[in-house]
Write a sequence for this structure.
């Protein structure tokens, strides 16, 4: 039987990279993903046979690798990506979760969904068209979601005769724009997804390029987002009290560590109550350990018998986030029905859900030029804007810039449970100017005006 330390070593042996792809229509995004899966030998034989059969029925001599990701019938008929397609694959060096997101303007909310958990975003550009409006939109969304690594894949280099000046001009323009948004790292790679140049294997047609292929970069990019060194946070998901003869007094607080590291003997605070105690034991994989870190699912045992329930947040006593009932954030509206000032909603933050009211919508962001439209009154599907929300109970929420896990939340329709918007607390971009407008009072007769 292996020990807990050996099990943890096995878990950490290969790293996991979550990444998302985005690009304008016909930039070859699905072809790139298909080529990546095919050339890395991550496609099963029956999948290849099915793709070959569909391609042949269309009169194509070679398999259309885009069909490996465009799974919806509407996507295959139109030759576009509509929904977010998740693909899982691995190489000897790293495991991957890939989110292939749509490129159309009307599916901006889908890109936000796919990129919200990504540590890297691959933005495709057609070498013939260069940086277009949708390219800037994708860069802005990546910056908004604080994606730490962005890859500019300049595709269809075979259609511009693999010309280095074409690539250099596009890379320079995109890098300047993305850097102005606060994107910390940008890597430009010239590729041809259709021919396979610089996707998995180096291109023989671009000897002027000495950088990594797409796969090589994905395998070697530093996982600088490593959450083990961040503010330690454990949202309580369940209180374990077996009350059996073997464990008559056992009281454990179970959940997945959202960020950071917890150690036995550490002084912790339970929020929003503010009560403090000390960790006496950590149970992990059925055994006691001295230390645990994200993303381990653990059970913490505390020295004092204090009131802790689902939705509470356990944090180090010297590193606690502020608790507040007034939240200002950037949200992406994902529902078909609009979000309006005065609307009653549920706010879900980690494992805690509370009643809330939309007090103000100060501005709506225009992604094309990053201008702010003040006091729009409402947000509709695919809109991104600033909101001020008042909650019925205090929440312990980090800034999204400090923690993507505990700085994010959802706004939910209390009537039917529909997700209305995805929110990111604090500033929108790394450096941005806010539009301050007069708040509008929201009155309610059912006890929702907090």
């Amino acid at each position: 039987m292996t020990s807990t330390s050996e099990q943890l070593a096995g878990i950490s042996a290969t790293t996991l990279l979550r990444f998302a792809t985005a690009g304008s229509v016909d930039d070859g995004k699905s072809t790139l993903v298909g080529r990546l899966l095919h050339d890395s030998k991550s496609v099963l034989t029956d999948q290849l046979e099915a793709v070959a059969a569909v391609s042949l029925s269309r009169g194509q001599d070679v398999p259309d690798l885009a069909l490996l990701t465009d799974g919806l019938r509407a996507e295959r008929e139109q030759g576009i990506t509509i929904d977010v397609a998740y693909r899982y694959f691995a190489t000897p060096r790293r495991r991957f979760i890939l989110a292939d997101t749509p490129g159309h303007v009307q599916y901006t909310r889908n890109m936000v969904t796919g990129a919200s958990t990504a540590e890297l975003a691959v933005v495709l550009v057609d070498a013939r068209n260069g940086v277009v409006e949708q390219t800037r939109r994708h860069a802005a969304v990546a910056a908004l979601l604080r994606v730490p690594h962005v890859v500019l894949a300049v595709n269809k280099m075979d259609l511009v005769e693999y010309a280095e000046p074409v690539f250099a001009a596009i890379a320079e323009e995109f890098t300047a724009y993305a850097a102005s948004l606060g994107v910390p790292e940008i890597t430009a790679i010239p590729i041809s997804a259709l021919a396979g140049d610089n996707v998995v294997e180096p291109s023989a047609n671009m000897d002027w390029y000495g950088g990594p292929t797409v796969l090589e970069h994905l395998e070697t990019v530093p996982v600088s987002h490593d959450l083990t060194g961040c503010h330690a946070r454990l949202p309580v998901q369940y209180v374990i009290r077996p009350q059996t003869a073997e464990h008559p007094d056992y009281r454990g607080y179970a959940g997945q560590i959202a960020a950071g590291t917890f150690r036995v003997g550490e002084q912790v605070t339970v929020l929003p109550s503010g009560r403090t105690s000390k960790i006496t034991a950590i149970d992990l994989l059925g055994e006691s350990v001295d230390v645990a870190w994200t993303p381990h699912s653990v059970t913490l045992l505390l020295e004092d018998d204090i009131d802790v329930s689902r939705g509470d947040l356990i944090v180090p006593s010297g590193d606690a986030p502020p608790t507040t009932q007034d939240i200002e954030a950037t949200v992406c509206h994902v529902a078909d029905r609009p979000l309006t000032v005065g609307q009653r909603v549920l706010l879900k933050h980690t494992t805690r859900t509370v009643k809330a009211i939309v007090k103000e919508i100060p501005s709506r962001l225009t992604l094309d030029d990053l201008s702010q439209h003040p006091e729009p009154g409402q947000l509709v599907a695919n809109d991104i804007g600033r909101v001020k929300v008042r909650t019925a109970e205090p929440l312990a929420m980090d800034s999204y810039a400090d923690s993507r896990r505990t700085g994010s939340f959802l706004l939910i329709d209390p009537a039917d449970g529909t997700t209305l918007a995805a929110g990111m607390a604090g500033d929108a971009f790394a450096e941005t100017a806010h539009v301050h407008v007069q708040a509008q009072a929201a009155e309610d007769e059912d006890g929702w005006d907090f």
Notes: The two ends are 55 Å apart (CA to CA). Residues 244 and 250 are 9 Å apart (CA to CA).
